[in-house]
Amino acid sequence: MENSFSKILGIFIAIVLLFLYPLFQQAQRQDDLSQIVIHSAVTTFVDSARTKGYITPEMYLEFNQKLGATGNQYDIQMEHLHKKYNPEYTDPANPATFRDSFTTYFDGHYNQEIMQRLFPNSPASDLNRRYVMAVGDFFTVKVKNVNRTMATILSDVFTGGITDGNVKVYVPYGGMVINEDY
Question: What domain of life does the UniProt record list for this protein's source (predicted)?
Fold first, then answer.
């Protein structure tokens, strides 16, 4: 009886080592490749938006198409911080009391506002569909997967369901808008 139990255990370990572990390694490599593809897509999209000073619906759709090529689903968070200046006065009612200084602050614009500008209920040829930024603003995109990848599922199989979440692909990238090409 003990001999048959050790044979069954040996067969089980052989199956795990011969089939499941290489499958797990392949799934992890697929997540690594997805990370590289997403990093490249995010970098291209953000750098293009920073260099041009605007985002068009075509740019955003091309970006989404590159993300979709990985087979995962992603949460895309865009953030545009518009730089504004407030002059400082000793007496706000009297403009002659200007103190020769300004307070700088950033006005934040996020996904909902950006998407409303890119995809309103107007024709595709409408130039108002551009989301315009100014030199000195900041534009940031954060992309993370929302689905469970095969590596996450196999990790759950090996660890008995103990994972630290679904996020295997996460790419934050952004910077200052350097040009206004419109």
Answer: Bacteria
